[in-house]
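Continuing the series of single-chain predictions for the mutant panel. This is the parent chain; the variants come on the following pages.
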Amino acid sequence: MEIVESDVELDNSDVVEPDYDPPLQMGDPSVEVNEADREGALVQKAMAMDAAFLEGNLVKAMSHLTEAVVLNPKSAMLYASRASMFVKLKKPKAAIRDADAALKIDDELFKGYKARGMAKGMLGLWEDAARDLHMARKFDFDEETTVMLKKVESNRKKIAEHRQKYEKLQKASEQRKAEVERLIKMKEAENESASLLKDGQVIRGASAKDLKMKLDAAAKTSCLAIVYFTATWCGPCVHIGPIFTNLASKYPKVVFLKLDIDEARDAAAEWRIQSIPSFYLWKDGRVVGEELQMRMSSLEKMIHEHTA
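Parent structure:
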């Protein structure tokens, strides 16, 4: 998750533009370093220190340090010294490259962690800089590291607090979005279910599967459903038919389902229909009442009870 640091008030007084100069020559770590090479490297390092601190010529000092690392590429201190010089020249990317080389040779080198931490601070990489400067403090201590670490830690904490706040807001936003999507899906399901049902009308069922689909739709819309089993040859059913239709128009929010036991044989078998007309009241996924005789007044009373 990217943190927009422009939203945080940071101390960027030491931040510089990244340097993209061609890298200076690095030593070959596979070569055998003899005593003469080591001594030559020490001489070049001493000349670099004189150029830097006596003459104030950092470019000349850098040239001598490069000669030194070429002569003795196995010296972590030489790479760390050149990294420190790059920090003074405000070339953080070059400093990080040399500090990495130094720490690859000696992962407990104070000067390597210090130079890399200072360089990363110059690039505004506050969290990385804090880690390196803390490691430097673990192995040694100097005032410059302490001052830089104080500034870096201040910025790191501000970014961490900003990230925490941002993540909290992001999480709340995602939760709200998920809730809206849930409500939309629920509404779509209700609308889809409602499209299967016809307010104020008797709905015919053709099979057990068709009946289940319509009962599920009724459950999703929290409606009471009346399941009426009938047959064309049933005399009482002929009489009851118009009354059932009138009840449907009288109670438009109740689902009235009608199944012919000869057409929907699987439904009749599943519901174990033994006589007709038979009425079942269905709500919330279960049968909540039944009327197995021809008393329509009793059926309407049960409708009242379950829709009150």
